[in-house]
Amino acid sequence: MRLGVGYCFYNDLKSIQRSVPTFINEVDLVLAVDGKFSLRDGSDYSTDGSTEYLDSFDNVIINKFVGMEHDKRQQYIEMAKKYDIDYIIIIDSDEYINDANWDIFRENLEKNNDSISGVKFYYTDKDYTSYPRIWKTGHVNYWKTHNIFEVDGSLVRSPPNLKTIEGISMSMNDDLRDDDYLLKTSEYQSRMLDYEIPLRHALRDGKLGNI
User: Fold this and answer.
1) Domains, the chain, ranges and CATH?
2) Residue 211 pLDDT more than 80?
3) Sign of the Cα pseudo-torsion (66, 68, 73, 77, in order)
4) Which residues on adjacent β-strands are paired with residue 112?
5) What contacts 24+ positions apart, CB below 8 Å, involve 55-62?
6) Helical ranges in the chain per DSSP H
7) In whole angstroms, what is the distance from residue 192 CA to residue 79 CA?
8) Collapsing DSSP states into helix, strand and coil, what is residue 109?
9) In whole angstroms, what is the distance from residue 76 CA to residue 96 CA?
10) What's residue 48's pLDDT?
């Protein structure tokens, strides 16, 4: 089984330096995509050394892409197909792996039959939820938003009864990002919601034919 990480990043060197060491030696490939999202302000590609840092690892493959968030994220899905990756773990640059037993994780993943599975994602020191972050290559794609997925031909926002693959857990922290970065992120998220909410409502209301 070939295991990869789908890694979306942009001008986030300090967060990346915290994130990458938590998984770099445990996966076959890191499929990293550099470039801003279309609705975000800033240069097209990273200028802070993020790309150079990632490029220093032998098992990192970098693609550069500027576009809508779902289109940028789809790049690592296509890369996974190209490089014969069986499963990808989706990790953003401000996220990292914790409490990991990679042997157990791989054993559990070998037994898994689901196209999209969850990972324990801690939002406090003690509390977690199941995030759909483990995808079987060739079975899951992004649709027209970053959080609506096409799973084996069906559109879903968050799959019901999502099974958690035990062995690893994840956390997120943006405390290594400076105030300007956080401001631009907030502005971007507001613009993204303006674009995505009508799509989410159309899916919810069964009106995708109008999209």
Assistant:
1) 3-210 (3.90.550)
2) no
3) negative
4) none
5) 57/20, 57/24, 57/30, 59/24, 59/27, 59/28, 59/29, 59/30, 60/24, 60/29, 60/30, 60/32, 61/29, 61/30, 61/31, 61/32, 62/32, 62/33, 62/34
6) 13-19, 50-55, 69-82, 102-110, 179-205
7) 25
8) helix
9) 18
10) 97
Question: What is the rounded CA–CA span in Å between residue 210 and residue 52?
Answer: 44
Tens-place pLDDT, residues 47-95: 999 999 999 999 999 999 999 999 999 999 999 999 999 999 999 999 9
In residues, how long is the chain?
211
Query: β-pairing, 60-64 with 29-34?
Result: parallel
Instruction: State the Cα–Cα distance between residues 111 and 15, nearest whole angstrom.
Output: 33
Total-model pTM: 0.94
Contacts of 185 (CB under 8 A, 6+ apart): 40, 174, 177
Place of tokens 């196209």: 115
The C-alpha atoms of residue 64 and residue 46 are separated, in whole angstroms, by: 10
The residues that bridge with 170 in the sheet, in sequence order, are 97, 121
Residue 192 Ramachandran class (φ > 0 left, ψ -120 to 50 alpha, else beta): alpha
